[in-house]
Every structure is written in structure tokens, then in C-alpha cells.
Design goal:
about 160 residues, alpha+beta, Histidine-containing Protein, Chain: A, 2 domains, 5-stranded antiparallel β-sheet, about 25% helix
Length: about 160
């Protein structure tokens, strides 16, 4: 894969996305229009990282604090993707811990969606299981895995071995 990620046609011709401006972003087609440059390769294969990790936190923390840290983790991955001009296919995590506690977080690059089990905000938790799947275009699997785990380690102050 080239470091220059331009969409290309066969025979090395640079592909420029053709925009039609007949409706100037107000077409009522239920989609958004962006004037950003597109980067990538014509038949680019996404990097995929998927794993289940059991973690013992250094200390008990409130579920509310854990939720904020997990959201910050996904947001930091999203920021990394955007800074490198990669493209998010999907980043999704399901986290379980304690009695009947779970958090589901997902993004496709725009908003981050979070769903949590109810009435657990002020409980303390020390052990969690993180189920993560990240699909990102423009990077390789080794880099995606390293970055995903490093950012999780930094935000939860743990060491991950996998």
C-alpha cells in the first residue's frame, strides 16, 4: 500500500471524485455531502482487529467514571483515524463487568453511540471484559491492534498482554 492514499483507476490514473452540485447539499436524500478530499486505494482492504480482553483495573472505580474512560478511548481512536486520513468502517466495543453491568459503544466515524445498563452508575467495579472489533481502511492490522490497545492501556492505566 502506498503512503499516498489517492483513489486510483487502473493504469495509474488518479481518480478524482466527481461531484454534482445540482442540489448543493440540500437534496433531501437523507445523506450528508462533504467537500473533503477522499484518500485510499481503489481495491483497498480494511485492517480488522477483533479481540476479547479480560482486565483487572488497578483500583475500583465508579461505573460512571469507567463509562467516561471507555468513551474517551473510542474518541481517541476516532481522532487517530481522522488525523491519519484513514477511514472508519466501524469501531465497536461491548464491555461487561460486575453484576449485570455492560456498556456498548460504537462509531462509524461521525457520532459515538453509547448504551449502558441502567442503575449501575454509582457502583464500583474492578474487573471488566472488553470485546472490541475495529475495522479501519488505510492502515494495517498490526498498527490498528497496537494503537487500539495502547490507547486503552493509557486511559484505564493498565497493562494489556495479548
Amino acid at each position: 500500500m502506498n503512503d499516498i492514499r489517492k483513489l486510483q483507476k487502473p493504469l495509474g490514473k488518479v481518480y478524482k471524485h466527481q461531484h454534482h452540485h445540482s442540489h448543493e447539499g440540500k437534496c433531501g436524500c437523507n445523506h450528508e455531502h462533504s467537500k473533503e478530499e477522499l484518500y485510499g486505494e481503489l481495491k483497498e482492504v480494511p485492517a480488522v482487529f477483533s479481540n476479547t480482553i479480560s482486565l483487572e483495573l488497578n483500583k475500583e472505580i465508579l461505573v460512571n467514571e469507567l463509562e467516561k474512560s471507555l468513551e474517551a478511548w473510542i474518541e481517541s481512536l476516532k481522532k487517530w483515524v481522522l488525523e491519519n486520513k484513514y477511514f472508519i468502517g466501524h469501531i465497536k466495543a461491548f464491555i461487561e463487568g460486575g453484576e449485570n453491568f455492560n456498556v456498548w459503544i460504537a462509531t462509524t466515524g461521525k457520532e459515538t453511540n453509547i448504551k449502558t445498563s441502567e442503575n449501575h452508575g454509582y457502583e464500583k467495579i474492578k474487573g471488566i471484559t472488553v470485546n472490541i472489533t475495529a475495522i479501519v481502511f488505510g492502515t494495517d492490522e498490526k498498527t490498528l491492534k497496537f494503537t487500539t490497545l495502547k490507547k486503552l492501556e493509557e486511559l484505564l492505566h493498565v497493562k494489556i498482554h495479548c
